[in-house]
Write a structure and sequence with these properties.
Keywords: Membrane, Transmembrane, Transmembrane helix. This protein is of the alpha+beta class. Helices cover about 35% and strands about 20% of the residues. It has a seven-stranded mixed sheet, sandwiched between helices. It is globular, with a radius of gyration of 21 Å.
């Protein structure tokens, strides 16, 4: 990563905690102050050690995927009655070409079996208006081992400074900027009036491939942020562990939106509170809690802390989906399935979501290791530019590629992120 002027990487949580307020989004969807013509021209160098940041995994992707799996796994001997529910889920999920296979003339033939190892790219978006290019608010990869019964789930910080490649479909010439902008850049489709999220996903996948060395993803999904409130409500709420006292930046105790300060720069009014301990949350509370990312609201490690909370939420959602209260209640299960399906756009590159459900039927929530890839803020003088991984992340990606990931993680237990 290079720019004009001296660049440095901070190892503490300071950069992540302040990045979202220091960085504005431009009309094109690119964070202001990063990228642009010319690129960076000087080296990025690490500086003093500080608090380790936690790059953990977010909410929706793991949940939407596991819902497809859970429906198959838990059907047992009563699959005949369950097929109707499965059909509803399959029908509710929007299937699109997220990797540009059709445009590239790919003629992939569906195989009878899905074999490991697998790499699945999962992206969460928070669309506010249909005419605004989508930003990738959460980017994560599920790496399933060759036996298809264990996996590693890791995220890439949305502010990770990367080289986004040239993408002719969107008339985009390439740029060095934050990762979350790749989807926005790629979503520009001259033939369509509105931004194309599926096309944006394609450019994002190309960018993630350059970062991780994963040449080809076996499947991918876009998960709509807002849909998860409906999923939680359909399940009757979710019980999860709150690991620190957090105050909401956005919501009042009754769930109403807080009032924006005159001229911007924050909100006014009482704040919803999330106290440390095991709590049962309604849909709006769960969604609000995992959105919090500022140290002044209790999330001391900023966006990395938010990622950790998302991971805890995902695990809690998975456990709730597996509970008897959901799977033995046909009406509740159907509501959950429909809510999950409507929140998901999926591409199996020749396989259906149901095919992955069967292939990953031995995969359980406790066999998925949550990985934290440490990093730090990238600064030019006092100006925050984004995030950068520490060198161990490259070693992790290399181990993914050569099949030695199990041994590597055993040798680096500090990369494992605890759910609680």
């Amino acid at each position: 990563m290079k720019r004009n002027g001296e660049m440095r990487v901070s190892e503490g949580g300071k950069g992540a905690g302040r990045s979202d307020r220091r960085t504005r989004r431009s009309d094109a969807g690119r964070p202001d102050g990063v990228g642009g013509e010319g690129g960076w021209s000087s080296s990025v160098r690490p500086i003093k050690e500080g608090r380790r940041k936690k790059s953990t995994v977010p909410r929706w992707a793991r949940v939407c995927l596991i819902f497809g799996i859970v429906l198959v796994v838990l059907s047992g001997g009563s699959l005949v009655g369950f097929e109707a529910v499965l059909a509803r889920f399959e029908g509710a999920v929007q299937q699109e070409d997220l990797f540009g296979d059709e445009a590239a003339g790919a003629t992939e033939v569906k195989k009878a079996d899905i074999k490991g190892p697998l790499n699945i790219l999962l992206v969460g978006i928070d669309p506010r208006q249909p005419d605004v290019p989508p930003l990738a608010d959460s980017v994560m990869v599920l790496h399933v081992n060759s036996t298809l019964d264990s996996a590693y789930l890791f995220s890439l910080p949305r502010d990770l400074v990367v080289q986004i490649p040239r993408f002719e479909k969107a008339n985009f010439n390439g740029d060095t900027t934050k990762l979350n902008a790749a989807m926005s850049y790629g979503s520009h489709n001259p033939a369509k009036r509105l931004p194309d999220a599926a096309q944006g996903f394609e450019l994002l996948s190309m960018t993630v491939s350059k970062v991780t060395g994963i040449k080809r993803f076996d499947a991918g999904a876009i998960i709509n942020f807002g849909g998860f409130q409906k999923i939680v409500d359909a399940m009757g709420g979710v019980t999860m562990y709150i690991d620190q006292n957090v105050s909401s930046e956005h919501k009042q105790p009754d769930g109403r939106q807080r009032t924006l300060k005159p001229g911007g720069g924050g909100y006014l009014g009482p704040q919803a509170k999330y106290k440390k301990g095991s709590r049962h949350l309604e849909g709006w509370q769960a969604l609000d809690y995992v959105r919090q990312r500022y140290p002044e609201n209790g999330v001391t490690d900023g966006d990395y802390g938010r990622q950790r909370h998302q991971q805890q939420f995902v695990r809690a959602m998975a456990d709730q989906a597996l509970s008897k209260d959901v799977v033995t209640n046909p009406l509740k299960l159907d509501k959950v399935v429909q809510a999950a399906g409507k929140s998901l756009i999926f591409s199996g590159r020749g396989h259906k979501l149901l095919d992955f459900g069967f292939a990953l039927r031995q995969l359980r929530s406790d066999s998925i290791q949550m990985i934290k890839l440490p990093g730090g803020g990238v600064f030019q003088g006092d100006s925050y530019k984004g995030e950068a991984f520490k060198p161990i992340a490259d070693d992790f990606f290399a181990a993914l590629g050569d099949g030695s990931i199990d041994t590597f993680v055993m040798s680096h237990p500090e990369l494992l992120n605890k759910v609680k």
